[in-house]
Task: structure prediction
Amino acid sequence: MSNTVIPVKLGEQYEGTVVDVLYTGVGVIMVDDYPIHLENAFEGEKIRFEVTQVNRKFGRAKVVEIEVASPDRVDSGKDYLLEAGIAPYVNLAYDAQLRLKQQQVQKLYKAVGIDVDVAPTIGMDNPTHYRNKTVVPVKYVDGKLTTGFIKKRTPGDIVPLDDYFVNDEKIDQIIGIVRDILDAHKVSVFDDDTQEGEMRYIMVRRGYYSHEVMVVLVTQTPTLTDEDAIATDIAAAVAGIKSIILNHNPRSLHVLTSGDNRTLWGADAIHDKLLDIDFEIGPNSFYQVNPQTTEVLYDMAATKGELKESDTVIDAYSGIGTIGLTVADRVDKVLGVEVIERAVIDAQKNVANNNVQNAEFVTADAPEQMQKWKDGGLKPDVIFVDPPRRGLTEELLDAVADMNPDRFVYVSCNPETMARDARYLIDKGFRIKGDIQPLDQFPQTAHVEAVAVFEPIEK
Ligand code: SAH
Result:
């Protein structure tokens, strides 16, 4: 694109029709050939908008008025969740959210020239209050300690909130209890401007099956004044409490927790189950936040992988070993690779706690480890990958192609990089087996999870 003329002006209002909703959750209105991105805007809607940002490729705008609404729009009465960035699709009917996610995956595959069926998105029966973990900031507002969310546009302010809509309702209640205890002890709150004060965030994790609760007090300072009395009060007030941790995190406001934990009361970790496997969850463990759909996801990935008792299975990007451990009893051997050492230590603990004899996890960069396994002559039958949003590297995909597994199961949280990687793998002699299955791990948000299975054309 040379000499692009930007057809809109900053701060001005225009009118247009939403032609698409990208997988990032933003609606698109075209002004001539120039795309405008807006939140809370759904396909077919006629919208008056104000331009808030322009660059060469696209502009951003905010909705001024919805002149013609989509039949799929609902009035949730919870627009504060949009401002908080918690639930961008809260005003879109749930069946429309599921359809949208299916269409987005379909479009992204089409865009890389892959003609494949995308199954209807698997959703939740009750797509609210599903999260098993949350971290919230605390601040005094009019002399009262308040929990809520930080406004996206004015990061200094905190807006009080008691129902986060996507959290386990018990977690929301616990946040309130802990906040009031901290208030009663008149804790000081860290102020970014003066760099003084102690408390920063409250984090709560609660096991979906176990109902075990962990409360983490995230502080700017290595100790919290009255910490023992505070912990005693929390322990007495919170049902199911198993662990109270002080997380010392004196770093930038953008990192919520550090690796520096001290147990104030109870155990260092809690436990929960996923497909009947016990997982130990510490304050820093990466653990899927929607346990209900995660079980569906792993079960489906395993079914699509058509596991056999004689199979050697690789679990790449294994985190704390969730995929590998939940399939271990169906196969001969599981080899996992994960780059974060603490997660691998958790995975090894989970191997021992569940008496699993046939799974090993190593700390390494997945592409490098895959090359190493390949050079060592390993011939896996099934490879699972569950990479972060940036997807896979060509190095990893080359190793997969060289190892020529019977089945390659790709679990993805970003359908765009997934489609890119699918194109690469197909060009290397693989084909997609069956359809692509999207699954709604994060209802009310723009996140799309999908599973695809690939097999080599020549075995
Ligand atoms: N399968 C796990 C984790 C998936 S999240 C689960 O469902 O719980 C993706 C994981 O990839 C994270 O644990 C992250 O630490 C890991 N990761 C990121 N980059 C990596 C790399 N280069 N090599 C190996 N693992 C990596």
Summary: Residues 288 and 294 are 7 Å apart (CA to CA).
